[in-house]
Specification:
This protein is of the alpha/beta class. It contains eleven helices and 13 strands. Bound molecules: inosinic acid and magnesium ion.
């Protein structure tokens, strides 16, 4: 039973949601903890033909036995939280929000959408996360413990996560966004308002780095980016469309910028995250013949060659390969 962090190697939207949902169903960890920035994230999963977009609760909710935690480092929008509990029909008794989480106020959302620098220059998601982190740094933010809407949903997340690890239970820690969006290691100023590497995900849920066994870094078989900022492997929109790689943002609905797999960026992301394994998603969109296949040996030659190239150039095992949008469509080579 291991303690595993899942993070993103590009600019978010690598398919972390799918990978987390798969791991939650396959490994059945008793504890799933949401790390990452906050509801600026949009994790999309397709389960039994039903599409679900999640912004705030752990995607690991798909494993019905899991305790669902949101760590102190994560920004919480109370309305988004309650709406999601309702929409996904999650038993509130399963959920524990750390009393020390920062609350996103409606004024933060207005501010995020109203400031030219954030809207035009950075191209934020407009979900209030940047202004809320500013308020936290200024020591003016309200915390989850001060929010009546969340009373009854609070729990000491750090204590629960560390307690589960002490008891030898598996813990799955869900990161959000991606390496290129890190406030410190990404393409500043075209970044989000916090670090988005594995070290930050530890901090978010209140565990020390010595307690982590595996860091699974997720990459899409091509790259995408929403918002402004450098994107060296970007393709012209028409070319991306011709390849069937068009995408739209799960939170904002904005068309995503699309590009080739970026080996240089990936290698840096692996270094800074201390990745132990890689997950490769959307292989079927790059190689349609790979759709739905369940074994690496069954992959068409070109798809197999691509997976081998990723392993060889990035020098980490590709342990998970997603071959379709359904949560279960996964080649699992973890052994
Ligand atoms: P913010 O996080 O809303 O402040 O946005 C800052 C930058 O990060 C913008 O370029 C956003 O498009 C990008 N961003 C934030 N969260 C995500 C995500 O979950 N997926 C993709 N891009 C994101
Ligand atoms: Mg997303």
């Amino acid at each position: 039973m291991s303690v595993t962090i899942v993070g993103g190697g590009f600019w978010g939207d690598e398919g972390k949601g799918k990978v987390v949902a798969y791991l939650a169903l396959a490994d059945r960890p008793p504890v799933v903890a949401r790390a990452g920035v906050g509801p600026n994230a949009g994790h999309t999963i397709l389960m039994d033909g039903r599409k679900v977009v999640m912004r705030q609760l752990p995607v690991g909710y798909v494993h019905r036995g899991a305790r669902l935690l949101i760590g102190a480092g994560v920004l919480v929008d109370p309305e988004v939280t309650l709406a999601e509990i309702d929409r996904l029909d999650v038993d509130p008794a399963r959920l524990g929000i750390d009393p020390l989480c920062t609350i996103i106020e409606s004024a933060h959302v207005v501010d995020d959408r109203g400031r030219d620098h954030l809207r035009e220059v950075v191209g934020t998601t407009g979900t209030g996360t940047g202004p809320a982190n500013e308020a936290r740094a200024a020591r003016r933010a309200r915390l989850a413990r001060d929010e009546p809407l969340l009373a009854g949903l609070l729990a000491d997340v750090s204590a629960e996560v560390n307690g589960a690890i002490d008891a030898g239970d598996a813990v799955l820690i869900e990161g959000t966004q991606g390496f290129g969006l890190s406030l410190y290691h990404g393409d500043y100023p075209f970044v989000t308002s916090k670090d988005t590497t594995a070290a930050a995900f530890c901090m978010d849920v209140g565990v020390g780095p010595t307690r982590i066994d595996e860091v699974v870094l997720v990459f899409k078989a091509f790259a995408s980016r929403v918002g402004e900022g450098p994107f060296p492997t970007e393709l012209p929109r028409e070319l991306a469309a011709a390849r069937g790689w068009e995408e739209f943002g799960a939170v904002t609905g904005r068309p995503r910028r699309i590009g080739e797999f970026d080996f240089e960026r990936a290698s840096r992301a692996i270094m800074v995250n201390g990745a132990t394994q890689l997950a490769l998603t959307n292989l079927d969109r790059r190689f349609p013949d790979a759709a739905g296949l369940e074994r690496l040996e069954a992959l068409p030659t070109e798809a197999r060659r691509f997976v081998d190239e990723v392993e060889a150039r990035l020098r980490r095992p590709v342990t998970l390969v997603s071959t379709g949008p359904e949560v279960r469509a996964m080649i699992d080579r973890r052994g």
